[in-house]
Amino acid sequence: MKRFRFILIIFTSLLAVSCENLMVEVKDVNLPHMDPVLNVVCFLSPDEPIEVHVIGVEPIIYNRATKVKYNSDYFVTNAQVRFGCVATGQQFDLVYVDSLGVYVCPDGQPKPSIEQGGEYTLRVEAEGYPTATAMAVMPQADFACSNIEGDVQKIENEYRGHFRFNLENSSSSEQVFRVISHLHGLYERYDYSGYDGIKVDTVVGYSLFMESYETVQPCSSVVVLHKNIQHIQWSTCQYFDSVSFEVMLVDPDYQKYHESIIANAPDLLILGQPDGVYSNINGGLGIFVGYIRRQVTSPINYTSYDSGV
Amino acid sequence: MAYRNTLLALLVGILLAATTSAQQRYTVSGTVMEAGSRETLIGATVTVPGKAVGVATNGYGFYTLALPAADSVVLEFSYVGYATQRHTVALRGNVVLNVELELDMMQIDEIEVVAESKTSSRSTQTSVVELPIKQLKAIPMLLGEKDLLRAFQLMPGVQSGGEGTSGLYVRGGGPDQNLIILDDAPVYNAFHLFGFMSLFNGDAIKNVELIKGGFPARYGGRLSSVMDIAMRDGRKDSIGGEAGIGLLSSRLMLEGPIVKDKVSFIVSGRRSYIDLLMRPILKMMDETQVGYYFYDLTAKLNWEIDKRNKLYVSGYFGRDKFYMYDKYSHTEESVGLFWDNATATVRWNRIMSERLFANLSAIFSNYRFDVYLDETSPFNHFRIDYMSGIRDYGLKYDLTWSPLTGHTLRMGALATLHEFRPQVVVGIDTEAGLNSRKEQIYRTLETALYAEDEVRLANIGLANAGLRLSLHSVGLKHMQMHLEPRASVSVFVSDKSSVKASFATMNQYIHLLSNTGVGMPTDLWVPATENLPAQRSWQVAMGYTYDLKPWHTTLSAEGYYKRSKRIITYLPGASFLDVNETLDGNISSNASGMDWESNVTTGSGHAFGVELLAHRKSGRLSGWVGYTLSWNRHRFAAINNGKPFYPKYDRRHDISIVATFEATKRLTFTATWVYGTGNAVSIAVAEYPTPHHGWGMETVYCYGERNHYRMAPYHRLDLGLQRRKYKRKTLRTWEFGVYNAYSRRNPYFYTMRRDGIGPNTEVNKLMQVSIFPILPSVSWSIKF
Q1: Do B134 and B106 share a structural domain?
Q2: Cβ separation A23–B769 shorter than 8 A
C-alpha cells in the first residue's frame, strides 16, 4: 500500500508539471540562399490608367533584429518598365512616380489604348534582379446584369440584407466574374469611448458589403446573391439607401492570384501545404492580367419584422 | 551459376513433392482454439516434428494437412503465448482433430516457442508484421488509451504522421494507400479524436496482421499496405467481460455463450467524457458551449451451426462530434463537425471436405462526415451542411483447397459496389425561400478474381505465386482492368535462417483528397475516373531472417524498392471546401463549382529503404528493436515547377525500441523509445508586399522549393507499469503510464511570428510549437 501511495504521489506531481500550455520554442534557422526576384503587378482595364507595381522580393532573416520595413521600402524605383501592344507593335516606357509608388505612362506622351481582346506585353529590368516578362490578353465584355433588387429586414438590433441580380454571359466560353457589393448612403459615426456611443457626425460614404467569384457557363446566367447580417452596434445601416454591384469580368489568372493571396499564410503549416502566391510572370513573381469593370446600382427597400418579443 | 543451382533445387523439390503425392494419403483437419473460451486461433502452426511438413491455421482457425498413411503420426500445435501440444494420430483414414491450446499467461517464460512461426524463417511472406494482442496491450500509449495503429507505428517501415497521431505511412505511402479491413469490411477513416486515436477497441480484437509488401493475391485495392483485423468471436463456455476507466474514455466489453458451445456473442463499447466534464463548467461561466465526444460499439455473433458450418455476424459503429453552440438575442447558432463509421459483415464458413474450406462474406461499410452551420431566429432558419462520404456493398467468396501435401491453393472472387458522395451541399434559408440539395454521386463497381498457390518445397523453401485480375467501372461507362502478378519465395539457408524475396503489383481505384495528410475526417474519398485513373505501384522486397532460438528472437533485414504512378494531390491552394456556387434557386446551373477533379493533379513517386528488426515475442523480457533507413520522393508536373520533392513524411532514420518486462506475476514494466528524422516542410524564405486590387497591399510569403526544410528530429520515451491483482475470479489491473517521460519538445508545427515594435527591433521569429509535454496517465480495468 505504501508503494502504491508513492506511485500516486509521483503521478500527481507529473500531472502538475504537464498542466501547462502549448510548448513554444523559438527556432534559429539558416535558410538556403534565395536569389532576389521582382514582383511585378499590373491590372489592365480599358477604363483605368496603366499602373505597374515593381517590388523587390527579399529573403526573410529569422530571429535577428531587422530594420522595420514599410511597403514602400520594397518598391524598386530604378527599374526599366516597357509596355507593348502586340497588335500595333508599339512599345511604351513607363516612369516611376514616387507619390504613387508605381510606374505609369509619362504625362504629355502618347498612351497605349487598352482594347477588349487585345494582347499586351510587359518587360521589367532592374539592376540586381533577373528580367521579368509577361503577356496578357484582355477579356471580351459579353455580359449583362439585370433584375437588380435588394431589401433589408429590420428586427430589433439586427439588420438583414439580401441583394441579388442576374448575371448573363452571352459569350461562347466560360467566364469568371469578381463581384463586390457596396452599400451607399449616409451613416453615422459614433464615439464608443464612453459606456454608450455618442454620435459625432453623419457622413456620406459607402461600405464594403460582400464579395464573391462567379463562374458562368457559356451563353447562360446565374443569380448572384449577396447577403449579410448586421448588428446595429456594427453599422447604422438604416441610413444606406442604395446597393451597387461592382462586376468585373476577369481573366482566370486574376482569380488564382487573388485567392492565392488569401491562402498564403504561414499558419497554414499546421493544416496543410502553404504555397506561394500565383504568378504568371516569367523570371519573377506577380501578375499581369486584364479585367473589364461594370457597376449597377439599385435602391434599398426596408421592411420591418415584428418578432412579437 | 548460383541461380542455376537454385533452379535445380526447385525442380528437385517439385519432383519430390509429386513423388510423395503418388502415395496413399489422408488428411488431418480441424480447428485450433483457445482452451476454455474456444476462441479460434489465427496463424497457429501445425507441424510434424522432424519433417518439413507444416501449415498455419487460416483466418477462422481452420487447418488441413495431407499426409502419407501411417500407423502413428505426431502432430505439434503451437501458438505464441500458448503451451505447445503434441497429438498422436493413426492415419488410416481422414482425421478431424480439433485442438484447444492452454493459455499460460503467468508462466510465459516457460512456454516453449517452436521454430514454426509465421514471422520466423519458415514463413513465405516477406514484409509482414504481426504483434500479439497481449504485447500490443502492454505498450504505454498517449493518455493510457490502448491503440492498435499506434503500436504498429513502432515497427520498421511504418511511420506515424506526427506527434500523437495514429495515421500509418507504410514504405513511403500515404494514409489513403492502406487497406484497413475489420472482419472483411473496409474501414475508411480509422480514427477518433482528429487522428490522435484509432477507432479499434483492443478488447474486441483477436488478431492483427500488417502486410507492407509481397502482398498475396487475395488482397488488393491499395498501394502500400493491408491491415487485416479480426474481431474476437466471444467466449463459448461462460459469460465474461472486461471494463476499464481511463483519463479520456471508459470501456466495457461483455462476451459469452447464448447457447453453450454453439452460439456466442461479444459486445464492446467506449465513450469519451471530456464534453460531460466541461459542460457544467461552461454553463456556469456562461460561455459558448464547446464540446467533443466520441463513442464506438463493436458487436459480433458467432453461431456454430454444425461441425461443417459456421455463421458470423459482426459490426462496428462509431461517431465523433465536435460542436459549438451559442445563443444571443433571439438567435441560436451552432457550428459543428461530426463523422461516423459503420461496418457490418455476415460470413458463412463451410468445410466442404477435409481439404476444401469455403467462406462467403456479405460486406457493408459506410463513412461520412458533415460540417454544419445552423442559425435559428424567430423569423429565419438558416442551415448549411457540407457533407462527404463513401458507402460500400460487397460480396466475397474465398476457397482454400489443399489438394496435395505442401500445396495450399486459394481462390476467390470479390465484388464491391462503391457509392461515393464526394461533395454534398444542403442549404436551407427560409427567409430567402431556399431549400436546396446539391450532390454528386458516383457509383463504381470494383471486382476482382484471384488465385494463389502456396507451395512447400521439401526442405528447400516455400513459395507463393498468385495472380489477381481487378476490374473497375464508373457507372458501366469507363472500365479499367488490370492484371496484378504476385510472387514471394523463401529459401531455407539452414534450419534457422532463410532468404526471402517478393514482387507485387497493386492498383488502387479510389483516391483520398487530403490537405493535411494526417487522416483528418474532412479528407474526401473519390473514385478513379476517366480523368483520374487508378493509382498503380509495383514493389520488390528482399530479406534475410534468422531465428535466434535460444533467445526466442527473430532477426530480420529487408530491403525494398517501390514505384508509384498516378498518385494524386490537391493543386496549390485547393481544398475540400472548394464549392463556389451560391446557394440560390439556380444552383444546379453552376455545375463547375462541384468539380473536384479540376482541383487535383497526378504525379509519381518512388521509395526505397532498408528495415532491420530484432523481435522477441515471448519470455519475461519481450519486445523489439527496429531501424529503418528510407528515401521517398514525389514528382507532380503542377507542383514545385515539376521538380521532384520530398513529401512531408519522408523520414531518413526511424528507430524504435520496445521492451516489456514481466517482473513478477503481478507486475509488468514497459518502455518505448522512438526516434525519427524531422518531417519535411515548407517554411517562408522571403516576404514582400503585393497589391490585392481593391484591398491595398498585402504582405505575402514565398515558400521556395516545396518541403525544403526539415523539422527538428523527433524522439520520445514512454514508460508504463501494470499492476495486476487476482481477486474473486477477477483480474484487476492498475496501469500507470508516462508519455514523453523526459518532456522532449517535439515539433508539431512551425509558424512565423513578428515580434517587436519600432526601428531595429522588429524580428521575424520561427516558432516551433509542441503539443505534448510529459503526460502521465492512469487507468484501471477489471476482467471477469
Answers
A1: no
A2: yes
> Are B208 and B351 in a shared domain?
yes
Q: Tell me the C-alpha to C-alpha distance, in Å, between residue B456 and each of B8, B45, B85, B409, B459.
A: 16, 14, 23, 12, 8
Of B78 and B346, the one with more pLDDT: B346
pLDDT digits (tens, 9 = 90+) for A188-242: 666 655 555 565 555 555 565 678 888 888 888 888 888 765 544 445 545 567 7
Instruction: Give the pLDDT confidence of B750-760 residue by residue, as tens digits.
Output: 877 777 666 56
Last residue of a domain, one of B110, B142, B163: B110
A59 and B686 within 8 Å at the Cβ level: the answer is yes
Looking at the structure, do residues B610 and B564 belong to the same domain, yes or no?
yes
Number of domains present in the structure of chain B: 2
Q: Give the least confident one: A294-298, B449-453, B611-615.
A: A294-298
Q: Rounded distance, CA B177 to CA B222, Å?
A: 5
- Exposed / middle / buried, residue B637 (Cβ in 10 Å: 0-12, 13-18, 19+): exposed
3-state secondary structure A68-84: CCCHHHHECCCCEEEEE
What's the CA gap between B667 and B680, in Å, rounded? 41
Tell me, yes or no, whether B178 and B42 share the same domain: no
* B61-94 confidence digits (pLDDT tens): 888 888 888 888 888 898 877 888 888 888 888 8
Q: For position B1, what pLDDT does the model report?
A: 44
Enumerate the H helices of B494-571 as residue ranges.
none
Which chain A residue's Cα is nearest to B707? A273
Average pLDDT, chain A: 78
Q: Identify which of B570, B593, B686, B440 has the alpha carbon closest to the alpha carbon of residue A255.
A: B593
* Range of the structural domain that residue B169 is part of: 128-584+594-678+713-783
Nearest Cα to B669, choosing from B656, B678, B679, B658? B658
Q: Is A286 on the interface with B (CB under 8 A)?
A: yes
Its pTM stands at 0.80
Task: Please count the other Cβ atoms lying within 10 Å of the Cβ belonging to residue A110.
Answer: 9
Domain-terminating residue out of B76, B110, B144: B110
**Nearest Cβ partner for B775 among A18, A157, A276:** A18
Chain B touched by A212 (CB under 8 Å): yes
Domains A37-138 and A143-249+293-304 fall in the same CATH topology: yes
Chosen for mutation from A18, A63, A152, A293 (greatest number of chain B CBs closer than 10 Å) is: A18
A305 vs B379: CB contact, 8 Å cut-off? yes
Q: Which CATH class is domain A143-249+293-304?
A: mainly beta
Return the bridge partners of B763, or none: A65, B755
| Residues on chain B touching A25 (C-beta within 8 angstroms) | 745, 767-768, 770
Whether A22 has a pLDDT exceeding 70, the answer reads no
Q: Are residues B90 and B170 in the same domain?
A: no
* Protein fold of A37-138: Immunoglobulin-like (2.60.40)
Whether B614 has a pLDDT exceeding 90, the answer reads: yes
Q: Are residues B42 and B6 in the same domain?
A: yes
For the segment B86-118, what is each residue's pLDDT rounded down to a tens digit?
888 888 888 888 888 887 654 443 333 333 344
Q: What angle do CA A268, A272, A278 make, to 5 degrees?
A: 75
- Nine-digit cell at B394? 460487397
pLDDT above 70: residue B580: no
Nearest to B431 among A160, A174, A214 (CB): A160
Query: Could you state, in order of their start, the residue ranges of all structural domains in chain A?
Result: 37-138, 143-249+293-304
Q: What is the mean pLDDT of residues B197-203?
A: 80
Domain presence at residue B684:
no
CATH of the domain at B77: 2.60.40.1120
Give the mean pLDDT of A141-160: 76
Regarding whether B444 and B542 lie in a shared domain, the answer is yes
Do B532 and B559 sit in the same domain of this protein? Answer: yes
pLDDT (average), residues B593-616: 85
| A274 part of contact set with chain B, CB < 8 Å | yes
